[in-house]
Design brief:
Elements lengths: L5 H4 L6 E2 L2 H4 L7 E2 L3 H9 L8 H5 L6 H10 L2 H9 L5 H7 L3 H5 L11 H15 L14 E5 L3 H12 L3 E6 L7 H5 L8 H13 L2 E4 L9 H7 L2 E4 L5 E2 L12 E3 H12 L3 E2 L2 E2 L18 E5 L3 H12 L4 E5 L11 H4 L11 H5 L2 E3 L2 E8 L5 E14 L6 E6 L5 E4 L2 E4 L3 E3 L5 H5 L26 E3 L2 H4 L4 H20 L7
Parallel strand pairs: 3-4, 3-6, 4-5, 6-20, 8-18, 11-12, 11-18, 12-13
Antiparallel strand pairs: 1-2, 7-19, 9-10, 14-15, 15-16, 15-17
Length: 498
């Protein structure tokens, strides 16, 4: 490495956030980036490890030590080329990835990992600013046609790779604009949508044809795909949310988290909502969508989606926000000897949670309370405990309600952020006769001959639709790998990366 002793001489320096009172006034990104010299110092902290666990901890296997060293040396352009060699969209992962690479960093043994995510984000933003990111237009055309259904991170990555291999790629998206989860599920304060648009512009020049507002099986028949394309890739995500099965669940004011986030994102982006168009990102606009303004909000579910609901509710000027989780509170610090370099189970506090909310653990919702007009007014809850059973064999846990611990939470808005169970079956998957695995996802292996191929010969699947609910970085990985498998299927070989 360029600075062999850098990790001993230079302290970890992470990018900061704008003050809470400033950032919650709009839906803009609020990260304060480090300067070039500071970033070069952070790159110098990368150790000359015998085994780069950061690289294997990263789902797309980013060549992290190399571009850290290049940043330290001031060769930002080459750093961008190395970064893009494994990741089509580092501007997405540099914003929303939880950074398993940093958890796997050798310096994380002492809780001082290299600021990999910060450096990644800075490399790609510098590359855009300097004009180094240009369309990679294939020099030859294969004469093969591929349809990709679903324009989230898996679909975008797959489509871009196939276009670069010389295939004619059409990308179908049922929503009004392409981007899938990136555009509609992730709030603008984490990922502003012009970031997606500039990458789509590159892809259009490379030959990808975007068909937004087109639902396969509704707007065009499934038969059209089989008649028109040599291969079909399904990347529709895991969209079926886990529901809350309690009494009076049907009351007004109880919504799935993604419906809440999507309606707000449409408003912020100036899309039509309930026949009204909004053209500003100001939260002072009257929101004709699912609104948290002046309401007691309860978010059920402690993951990233729940955190996004918190940040959005704060910006919509909720009266109060409480996040409840049925599981127990994780430990503040993991046991490195047992977990490193794997992703640890420990307490994490998101930027949205830092902005203000109450978090309650070990809580089960028993029923919803009717205000007399079919609106929710409160949740009846009970505290639970988790008892370990069969510890030596299956390491199973059993939930037990604690009698006498019942309580109520005031709530005029309840947001269900309990995860997603499987893709939507009705329509596309059922019409195609796609086989499912034991977890209810599309059945397709990820290695060997026919990787990512479904039971239907020329139909492939990748991302959350195949894998189940996961991270953006895993979706990019699967999209890239699936593209290589499709390329091999169409041509008998592939020069796309593994």
């Amino acid at each position: 490495m360029g600075k062999a002793t850098g990790f001993m001489e230079i302290a970890r320096n992470e990018r900061q956030y704008k003050a809470v009172e400033s950032r919650i006034k709009n839906f803009r990104e609020f990260v304060i980036e480090l300067g070039d010299r500071e970033l070069e110092d952070q790159g110098a902290r990368c150790m000359d490890c015998g085994i780069p666990y950061c690289q294997t901890g990263c789902p797309v296997n980013n060549i992290i030590p190399d571009w850290n060293d290049l940043v330290y040396s001031g060769d930002w352009k080459q750093a961008s080329e190395v970064l893009h060699s494994t990741n089509n969209f580092p501007e997405f992962t540099g914003r929303v990835c939880p950074a398993p690479c940093e958890a796997a960093c050798t310096l994380n043994i002492e809780d001082q990992p290299v600021t990999i995510k910060t450096i990644e984000h800075s490399i790609v933003e510098r590359a855009w600013k300097e004009g180094w990111i240009q369309p990679q237009i294939s020099k030859h055309r294969t004469g093969k046609y591929v349809a990709v259904v679903g324009s989230g991170p898996a679909g975008l990555a797959c489509a871009q790779q196939l276009a670069r291999a010389g295939h004619s790629v059409s990308l179908y998206e049922k929503q009004g604009r392409s981007g899938g989860l990136l555009r509609y599920g992730i709030p603008d304060f984490k990922l502003e949508k012009h970031i997606i648009d500039r990458r789509m512009a590159q892809m259009k020049t490379e030959g990808v044809k975007f068909h937004s507002g087109t639902q396969v099986g509704v707007d065009i028949p499934v038969s059209f795909l089989f008649e028109t394309f040599n291969a079909i890739v399904l990347t529709g995500g895991a969209e079926h949310p886990r529901d809350l099965e309690v009494q009076q669940r049907e009351l007004n004011g109880i919504h799935f988290a993604m419906d809440f986030l999507t309606s707000n994102t449409r408003r912020v982006q100036g899309n039509f909502v309930d026949n009204a168009q909004f053209t500003s990102d100001s939260i002072s606009d009257r929101a004709l969508c699912i609104s948290a303004k002046d309401k007691n909000v309860v978010v059920i579910g402690g993951g990233d989606t729940g955190s996004d609901c918190i940040g959005t509710s704060i910006r919509q000027q909720a009266k109060s926000i409480t996040q409840i989780e049925i599981l127990s509170e994780p430990p503040e610090k993991e046991n490195k000897a047992l977990t490193w370099p794997n992703w640890p189970h420990k307490l994490r506090t998101s930027s949205s949670q830092e902005e203000g909310c109450d978090r309650i653990w070990d809580v089960k919702t028993q029923s919803c309370v009717n205000d007399g007009n079919e609106n929710v007014s409160a949740l009846k809850c009970i505290k639970v405990a988790w008892d370990r059973v069969d510890a030596d064999e299956n390491d199973q846990w059993r939930m037990r309600e604690i009698q006498g611990s019942e309580f109520e939470l005031k709530a005029e808005l309840v947001l269900l952020a309990m995860g997603f169970v499987h893709p939507i079956y009705q329509g596309l998957l059922e019409d195609m006769g796609i086989e499912l695995d034991s977890r209810g996802n599309v059945n397709a292996a990820t290695d060997g001959k026919g990787a990512y191929q479904t039971n239907v010969k020329n139909v492939f699947s990748a991302g959350d639709m195949r894998r189940g609910q996961s991270l953006v970085v895993w979706a990019i990985r699967e999209g890239r790998q699936c593209a290589r498998s499709v390329d091999q299927f169409l041509q008998g070989y592939s020069e796309l990366p593994e």
